[in-house]
Design brief:
- With 168 residues, this protein is mostly beta strands.
- The protein has one domain: Nucleoside Triphosphate Pyrophosphohydrolase (Alpha-Beta Complex).
- It has two helices and eight strands; from the N terminus they run ββββαβββαβ.
- Strands 1, 2, 3, 4, 5, 6, 7 and 8 form an eight-stranded mixed sheet that branches.
- A hairpin with a 2-residue loop joins strand 1 and strand 2.
- The longest helix is centred in the middle third of the chain and has 13 residues.
- It is globular, with a radius of gyration of 15 Å.
- The mean pLDDT is 88.
- Belongs to the Nudix hydrolase family.
- InterPro entries: Nudix_hydrolase, NUDIX_hydrolase-like_dom_sf, NUDIX_hydrolase_CS, NUDIX_hydrolase_dom.
- Its cofactor is Mg(2+).
- GO terms for molecular function: hydrolase activity.
- Keywords: Hydrolase.
């Protein structure tokens, strides 16, 4: 891999539920990872695209929902294999910016990633998950479950951005 990918994601909480997308694992041959996991809607920023436009495009592609984009919540770096391994970051290296978002319209669907053909799609389903049930799901990245639980009570509108690195 020659580039670090810049990604965006949308954290939407409404009526005590969080919007999540179930994805197939990005490393299906790694026995340490589950075969699927739940993530925030989001994806790679395209050249010339603003961060706000990227969040809105990814939300529409993956969920069929429109959103307003609020403040930056977190910055997450992902290296795979993880730091400390001889080939760290050779399979994947990305920096993801997570934004507070509010759904403003649209109709929820299980979307597609346009960069993949139909037989290689990674999105399994899209769902509003009750906040009190998120511990029953494999959320990725690992900090996400605790982050949602603690920050949703404090109010995400005024959250100070935090940095999360790849696990050692």
């Amino acid at each position: 891999m020659s580039q670090v990918r810049l990604r965006v994601s949308a954290l939407c909480i409404k009526d005590g539920e969080v919007l999540l997308v179930e994805h197939k694992s990005f490393a299906p041959d790694d026995p340490k990872l589950p075969p699927s996991y739940w993530i925030l809607p989001g994806g790679v920023v395209e050249r010339g695209e603003t961060l706000e436009a990227a969040v809105q495009r990814e939300m529409m592609e993956e969920t069929g929902l429109e959103c307003s984009v609020g403040n930056l919540l977190f910055i997450k770096e992902l290296l795979y294999p993880h730091p400390g391994v001889s080939a760290q970051g050779t399979l994947h290296h990305s920096v993801s910016l997570g934004f507070f978002c509010e759904v403003t319209g649209g109709r929820m669907i299980t979307g597609k990633d346009p960069e993949y053909p139909d037989d290689k799609q990674v999105i399994i389903t899209v769902s509003w998950i009750p906040l009190h049930d998120i511990d029953r799901y494999d959320l990725y990245p690992p900090f996400l479950s605790d982050y949602i639980r603690t920050k949703s009570d404090a109010g995400l509108e005024n959250a100070v951005p935090e940095f999360f690195a790849s696990p050692e």
